[in-house]
Structures are given as C-alpha cells and as structure tokens.
C-alpha cells in the first residue's frame, strides 16, 4: 500500500466515522494524527492562516469527490465558504476496507484524535493545531510554546493559549 492509499483510507475512515465533517476539522485532525501520534501519512504541512495546512489534503478530497466516493458540499456562511464532507452509502467504507490493516493499526489513535477534536469550532481547531505545531517544530517548553503561538496567532489571548496548552498536555496531545 502506498502513501496515497493510506491517506485516502484515513480520510474516508474519518468521514465515514463522523458521517459529516468540515474540511478544516479534517485537516487539523490529520495534522495532529500525523504530527503528534506518528501515523505515517507523510503530509508536508506548513503554517497557514488557520494553523497547519497542506494542499495535498484538498487535492485528495477533490479526488475522492470526483470519484464519487465522498460528497464535498460548499456552503456560504457569513461570507465564508464552509465545506462539509459526507459519505456516500457504503462506497466510502470500501476505500478504507481495502486498506483495513493500516486503519486497524492506527484506529485507536485516529479515534482518540477525532473524539477530542470533532465538533470544535474552527478557531479552537486552529489553536489546538498551532500549539501542536509549535510544540513539535519549535520548542518543548510551555512558556516558549505559548509565546511562539502568541507571536504567530496574536488574535489569541495568552490566557486562552495557556489554558489550551494545559488541556492538551493533560490529554497527552503534547509529549516529548
């Protein structure tokens, strides 16, 4: 199984599990799954407007949508385009079903991340993913991570960043 198949399997597994998920939430979940819990998806994330991002995920969503394996519905909400990803009956299950060994190996980790992050508002997803990014790419020290995130994302208050940092540490989402 190649990396592309692993990623499609992971994406379709998460969408099928959730039945409906936003594109931003999916992106941040995949980032944390890879970056913190070492699921070998091999995405190349960089910091972007709403935290870590890679165009690879958008391309894979488009591929799955054009292949008729998922439904990618765009909706204008408060002058922003929101994307809802949904499954198409049992078709999606077949994609990850063919890659069942990979999904089974990482299922608990994926479920843990989805359970924690699914349903979070976009702003909170941005903060969580940016904290994990700063922790994994820059520092392993609370004060430095909080300061770095505040530099990167000045619209978050220091108290908000610190509280989310502590929550992530308690939930084992930040570990050396």
Q: Please, could you describe this protein's structure?
A:
The strands form 2 sheets. A 3-stranded antiparallel beta sheet has the order 1-5-4. Strands 2-3 form a two-stranded antiparallel sheet. The longest helix is centred in the middle third of the chain and has 18 residues, at 100-117. It is of the alpha+beta class. 60% of the residues lie in helices and 14% in strands. The protein has one domain (3-170). A hairpin with a 2-residue loop joins strand 4 and strand 5. It is built from 8 helices and 5 strands.
pLDDT below 50 for ≥5 consecutive residues: which ranges? none
Q: State the major sheet.
A: 3 strands, antiparallel
Rg estimate, integer Å: 16 Å
Counting DSSP H or I runs of 4 or more residues, the number of helices is: 8
Helical content (DSSP H or I, runs of 4+): 55-70%
The pLDDT mean sits at 90
């Amino acid at each position: 199984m190649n990396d592309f198949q692993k990623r499609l399997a992971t994406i379709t597994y998460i969408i099928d599990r959730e039945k409906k998920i936003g594109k931003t939430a999916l992106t941040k979940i995949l980032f944390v799954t890879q970056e913190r819990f070492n699921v070998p998806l091999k995405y190349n994330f960089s910091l972007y407007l709403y935290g870590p991002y890679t165009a690879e995920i958008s391309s894979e969503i488009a591929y799955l949508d054009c292949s008729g394996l998922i439904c990618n519905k765009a909706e204008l909400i408060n002058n922003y385009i929101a994307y809802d990803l949904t499954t198409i009956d049992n078709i999606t299950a077949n994609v990850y079903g063919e890659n069942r060994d990979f999904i089974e190996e990482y299922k608990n980790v994926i479920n843990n991340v989805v359970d924690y992050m699914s349903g979070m508002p976009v702003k909170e997803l941005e903060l969580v993913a940016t904290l994990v990014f700063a922790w994994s790419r820059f520092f392993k020290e609370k004060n430095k991570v909080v300061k770095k995130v505040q530099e990167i994302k000045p619209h978050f208050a220091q108290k908000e960043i610190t509280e989310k940092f502590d929550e992530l540490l308690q939930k084992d989402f930040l570990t050396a």
